[in-house]
Amino acid sequence: MKTFLSTILKHQGRTLRRRVQLLSDLHLEIGQQYLSYTFPASAPFLLLGGDIGRLIDYDRYLKFLETQVSRYKKVFLVLGNHEFYGLDYHAGLKEARRLVEEPSLADAVILLDKTRWDDPNSALTIIGCTLWSAIPEEVSAIIESKINDFKKIDGWTAQTHNEIHAREAAWLREQVAQAATEQSAERQLLVATHHAPCVEGTSAPRDTNNPWTPAFATDLLRQEGWAGIHTWAFGHTHYSTELVRNGVRLVANQRGYVLPGSTAQKVSGKSHNFDPGMTIEL
């Protein structure tokens, strides 16, 4: 009887839907808003999709996360490009790992750096990484001159950017393929990256054809190998949106650069406004 009941409970857990609150590009480094910025908690899980702040603001960043773990069951953190500003890439990763291991966070923050997390109480699976974009050689010079990453991340180059993109894209493909073999478990797959997985529709229309657009997005979804993804959350483009590309639902909820005390958002248009209470259900 005990075994039978545990099987029923496990099945019920697998079919339970989960709500995840999605926020990215808070840019709390602008005016040092780590302690002052507030938003409503509207789901048990919080996904922070990168560019939350800078890891060199370590103590303030930690205080922000401490506030969130008191309000959510789990907090998932994707590293954006701004997280690395003032550091080199490897030092940034080291600081991020140290951050989520702080005792005050009580193992409630999951760093999504080529990481898979399976919810033990539902069918939700989250896989995530930064997914640095692919920069074509013919625009690498202009991108290196225009994009602050190459000035503010120590030693960062288009070549390094592309090498890490290749590793992360390959890892994502492997994880999605593996999840596809687990269809019998009815897992709901949420992919979380900072950079966007396609160009069209993920940035404001005025930005789509800029020569530096490849620093923000890569057309991965034009390629095969992404079947089985329920939702793909991204950031980096400062454009809040929801759309479907090649059968994959894409969502972004991005605050962008906002000065302390201001509620203004750079992107105009009602359907593309940042919503601090936005949730997705899987």
TrEMBL record:
Give the Calcineurin-like phosphoesterase domain ranges: 23-239
Question: What are the recorded GO MF terms, alphabetically?
Answer: hydrolase activity
The record's section on InterPro entries has: Calcineurin-like_PHP, Metallo-depent_PP-like
Q: One Pfam family of this protein, by short name?
A: Metallophos
Q: What is this protein called?
A: Calcineurin-like phosphoesterase domain-containing protein
Highest taxon listed in the record's lineage: Eukaryota
